[in-house]
């Protein structure tokens, strides 16, 4: 057995060697992609596909064969370089309920919302309970981090004064951490 990469955890491989036999029942794939557009906006596309390893009959009176999508949904957020949502598109290609797709227009409420601190709370408030689709709402989390990953270099190059806004957003960028000491010394608070 080869050693895990330096800094990597060996927890998963140890658990797999000692766990009981398992049977795959359900798989969820979440894919996020970021596209830079020629009009200055960015499209962040989230896609979720759920499949099962056995046939099911859904509560929406649909028969779904093993390996076919139970859910297949897309959410596309068009952002400006300040991470403000300027347009929203939704697609429900496969869904178990008869009227799941009817909630799609509700996601237009995201237009004008900024991806940043508090974004997750805003999504939860806008689409709680019957006001939203659990699956479309869940996509917004990984889509938000995808937007940061894709757009960061471009935003920082055009607005270097704003890049220090990342301080204290996670452990690695804590004000007492090495990254902040090197990149934003004016925000560095020391190791204490």
Give an overview of the whole structure.
By secondary structure, the chain is an alpha+beta fold. It folds into 2 domains: 25-158; 165-192, no CATH class. It has helices at 11-18, 119-126, 134-158, 178-183, and strands spanning 26-36, 42-52, 56-57, 63-64, 69-79, 85-94. The longest helix is centred in the C-terminal third of the chain and has 25 residues, at 134-158. The radius of gyration is 21 Å and the shape is globular. The relative contact order is 0.12.
**Content of β-strand:** 15-25%
Integer tally of domains: 2
Q: C-alpha Rg, in Å?
A: 21 Å
How many angstroms does the end-to-end distance come to?
Answer: 40 Å
Shape: globular
What is the chain-wise order of helices and strands?
HEEEEEEHHH
Number of helices: 4
Fold blueprint:
Layout: H1 11-18, E1 26-36, E2 42-52, E3 56-57, E4 63-64, E5 69-79, E6 85-94, H2 119-126, H3 134-158, H4 178-183
Antiparallel strand pairs: 1-2, 2-5, 3-4, 5-6
């Amino acid at each position: 057995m080869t050693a895990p990469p330096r800094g990597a955890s060996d927890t998963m491989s140890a658990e797999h060697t000692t766990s009981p036999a398992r049977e795959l029942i359900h798989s969820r794939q979440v894919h996020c992609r970021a596209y830079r557009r020629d009009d200055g906006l960015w499209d962040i596309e989230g896609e979720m596909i759920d499949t099962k390893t056995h046939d099911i009959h859904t509560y929406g009176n649909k028969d779904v064969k093993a390996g076919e999508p139970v859910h297949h949904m897309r959410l596309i957020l068009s952002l400006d370089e300040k991470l403000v949502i300027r347009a929203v598109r939704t697609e429900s290609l496969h869904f178990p309920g008869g009227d799941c797709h009817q909630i799609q227009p509700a996601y237009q409420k995201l237009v004008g919302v900024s991806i940043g601190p508090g974004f997750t709370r805003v999504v939860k408030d806008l689409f709680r309970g019957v006001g939203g689709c659990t699956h479309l709402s869940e996509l917004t989390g990984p889509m938000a981090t995808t937007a940061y990953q894709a757009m960061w270099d471009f935003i920082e190059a055009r607005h270097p004064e704003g890049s220090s806004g990342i301080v204290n957003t996670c452990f690695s960028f804590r004000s007492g951490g090495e990254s902040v000491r090197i990149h934003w010394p004016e925000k560095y608070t020391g190791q204490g």
